[in-house]
């Protein structure tokens, strides 16, 4: 298939943006980029280290620049960080250069996913506190109205990733965003 526009996955941490994005890119036979990974490569620091040394505003500035650079590349699948779409400039750039998909996942599922990962590597700085559920609920309440501006809202519970990818490919085809070779 030929992808005519970048597909950007947005949503909360733990929504499955990287896992689904990787599978989607493989299915579409296009490159995959993870914004957080790209930021870490550019900064030569982990997301956690950037937050600790320089704070969230510095991280968001780097995130904005990295996503702008990625949007200038050939069409691909892009997994954005959970807070990236909250930035007006980044959201406008994504709106102009990509087809955005909000992976909407209930808080209980997000909680299970992030707790497992947080116990392993503490890589989600916004969740390094004693009330992970409360933090997730607060973030979700603030972010949902913004995430809802995405081109597509895909409600996802514990649906197999293959089914989610099938739904995305069908919508992309219906909207003329991917063509057969």
Secondary structure layout plus pairing:
Layout lengths: L1 E2 L2 E5 L6 H12 L3 E3 H9 L3 H8 L1 H16 L5 E3 L8 H10 E7 L2 H15 L10 H16 L4 E4 L5 H14 L3 E2 L2
Parallel strand pairs: 2-4, 2-5, 3-4, 5-6
Antiparallel strand pairs: 1-7
Helix pairs in contact: 1-8, 2-4, 3-4, 4-5, 6-7
What does this entry look like structurally?
The protein is globular, with a radius of gyration of 16 Å. The chain has about 180 residues and is α/β, with parallel strands linked by helices. The chain has helices spanning about 15-30, 35-45, 45-55, 55-70, 90-95, 105-120, 130-145, 160-175, and strands at about 1-5, 5-10, 30-35, 75-80, 100-105, 150-155, 180. The protein has a single domain (about 1-170), classed as P-loop containing nucleotide triphosphate hydrolases (Rossmann fold, 3-Layer(aba) Sandwich). The chain has a five-stranded parallel sheet. The chain contains eight helices and seven strands.
In CATH terms, the superfamily is P-loop containing nucleotide triphosphate hydrolases
| Oligomer description | single chain
How many E-type strands? 7
In DSSP terms, counting alpha (H) and pi (I) runs of 4 or more, how many helices?
A: 8
Let me know the average pLDDT: 88
Helix content: 55-70%
* Biggest sheet overview: 5 strands, parallel
Please tell me what the overall shape is: globular
CATH architecture: 3-Layer(aba) Sandwich
What is the spatial order of strands in the main beta sheet? 3-4-2-5-6
CATH topology category name = Rossmann fold
What is the strand content?
5-15%
- Radius of gyration, taken over Cα atoms and rounded to an integer in Å: 16 Å
N- to C-terminal separation?
Answer: 5 Å
Order of helices and strands: EEHEHHHEHEHHEHE
Structural class based on helices, strands and sheet pairing: alpha/beta
Return the CATH class: Alpha Beta
Kindly give the count of domains. 1
List unreliable stretches of 5+ residues: 118-122
